[in-house]
Amino acid sequence: MRASAGMWTLQSTLQRHGLGPVAGVDEAGRGACAGPLVVAACVLRPGDARRLEGLTDSKLLGPALREEFYYRILRRAEDHAVVVIPPAEVDRRGVHIANIEGMRRAVAGLSNPPGYVLTDGFPVRGFGRPTLAVPKGDLTAACVAAASVLAKVTRDRLMVGLDAQYPEYGFAIHKGYNTPLHEEALAGHGPSPEHRFSFVNVAAAAGVGRSGGVVQNGFPDGDTEVGGEQS
To answer: Between β-strands 22-28 and 37-43, what pairing exists: parallel, antiparallel or unpaired?
Structure first.
């Protein structure tokens, strides 16, 4: 299956072979050091390619267009589920394990069990259904892109809400990612209850210091994502 074949080709092929409905799964906030991790699962109607023309990875859509697609997806999707994982759970489980468990919960939260599950980038077990890891799935599979939009818009709204509670951190601007503005706020105010203390920079700001068990993004120190528009 070539990526150039189109965003709907993989889903259409699976459905044509009796393996539908096809659910796409993606998350937002994996690389952030503050705020929740949000995971979404989405099943799109097979005939909606034209109605969702232009759908792609949520990080490539501007805020206004993301919101537009968010409402379109909610109106048109055959099924969807969104799971919000609080920072304390991310700390307790580790961000990678929390992400995988969130994907399983999102698929289990669909109204009807899907016939097939597509994940973005890496394989995930435990759905109770056949699954396929799709490289750059949010760029090549429409249902994964739809899940990425649902997850990111939901999370961005939650971060704007947290900004009202903790205005000193600028959550509405950087959404909890490790930007210079965020690092400056962490240095000046220390972590809030919404920060992830399992992340090295947050632990350091809290005066905990580095330890062998502190990881970022589910991988050893130095393999973390940074920036304002990560997944």
So the answer is: antiparallel
- The pTM assigned to this predicted structure is 0.88
Q: 55 pairs with which residues across the strands?
A: none
Please state, as a whole number, how many other Cβ atoms lie within 10 Å of the Cβ of residue 42: 30
DSSP conformational letter for 25? E
- The torsion angles phi and psi of 25, rounded to 5 degrees, stand at -130, 135
DSSP-H helix ranges across 137-226: 137-140, 142-165, 171-174, 180-189, 200-205
Position 5 confidence tier, pLDDT thresholds 50, 70, 90: low
List Cβ neighbours of 94 (8 Å cut-off, separation of 6 or more).
198, 215, 218
Q: Indicate the helix (H) or strand (E) that contains 10.
A: helix 9-16
Torsion angle (degrees, nearest 10) of CA 212, 215, 219, 223: -100
- Report yes or no: 69 and 52 within 8 Å, Cβ to Cβ: yes
Going by C-beta distance under 8 Å and a sequence separation of 6 or more, which residues neighbour residue 61? 69, 149
Residues 6+ apart with CB under 8 A from 180: none
The model's confidence at residue 123, banded by pLDDT at 50, 70 and 90, is very high
